[in-house]
Amino acid sequence: MEAKNTFDLSGGYVLPGFIDSHAHLLSTGLEQTRLNLFEYEAKIEAIDAIRRYAEKHDKVVAYRWDESRWRDDPTYITASDLDGIVKPVVAFRRDGHMAVANDQAMRSIGQHRPDGIFREEDMQMLDPLVKPGEEEYVQALQTAIGISASLGITGVRDIVDRATYDAYRRIKSNVRIFKVIYAEDLFAGFGSDPSDWGVKTFLDGSLGARTAAHEGWDTKNLKMSEQQFERFCEGTWSRNLPVAVHAIGDLAVRVAAETMHRHAGRQRNSIEHFELVEDGVLDIIDANTIVSAQPNFLEWAGHGGMYQDRLGESWLYRNNPYRDILDKGLKLAFGSDSMPLGPMYGIHYAVNSEFSQQRITFDEAVRSYSEAGSYLIGAENWIGRIETGYSADFAVFNERNIEDRRRLKEAKPLMTIVHGNTIYDASRVDS
Ligand SMILES: [Zn+2]
Ligand SMILES: [Zn+2]
User: Fold this and answer.
1) Where is the Amidohydrolase domain (predicted)?
2) What local confidence, expressed as pLDDT, does residue 7 receive?
3) How many A from CA of 301 to the centre of ligand 1?
């Protein structure tokens, strides 16, 4: 076979281009063009950043605060923390399953909550304040595509709403985008484009926002009964589309697994997140049900972390059991959920986990972030591997930077190549 291009990688270490199997590029872009609170390690610093931003803008829409990372006061931001800020403020928690609004913001939408906290479906009330303008969609997606390329990502399975879907039509992306649409935004023509991949629905919320369907918590957190979910699946499969179901708590994961088990082979479906997995569930997962998980969530899995705080000792060792999943021969595709975007960030946690049920090897983690993702989207015959006949999608690293497995989190690629074309070259980026 004749190569299209020849590269001198000057000793670079070549990995298959990463496929992020679950991302929200719109929010990755918006957190750049608006306000990103992820890096702040104290609550007071995050609130300060909101205050400073408010001085220069007529409203604040902020993303990615995570109380479990704060050294001073690991509690949610509430409306009273934002007292004295005269501009409307909406700040989304890292997981996107809850947001806090200040008095000014609540007044402008005619809603009031004593603590300013909006969870799950209630967050739609905040839309008038947070919905981007048409141009902002395009700008945010372009920003996020650039970030993806700089992280070695060559393919993204992006979870999109209708407005984001439409914005993609106005963009030329050099990163491969495979779109999953939210069930409520599904439209007649969806599925006719080869990059339209499937339909996402929710069985529950998140552990961080305390909205997961977890045994011992509120059973109302289960957003659909097993029958309702089965009907949803039937409807989606009858249109020849796969189901991507969000399931985090043990109850939700069980409903998802059992339903798919009863209909094995209908489509290549996925269970998204798959965090609390009861004994026996892994035995009923078939080859057409892909576990789509986020290894960066293991950041919360250590002693004293968020999983222990929310769930106690009993789930401490057993959440996100990647080792067990692979040992059962199941497909495990990795993504970031944009929390934050970054394959090496996630691979770092999967390789370095404190607990043996979660810990997998570097090679396994890279495969989950490439080959397994291509299988999930049915593209396993042409992307996701370095092999003759496959598209030349690569993430090139300096070997020195990935040798030390304890520091993978910091590893940045030298180059990203999609279909033989360099889409990112670190040596050409001004530092
Ligand atoms: Zn989800
Ligand atoms: Zn998500």
Assistant:
1) 6-424
2) 75
3) 18
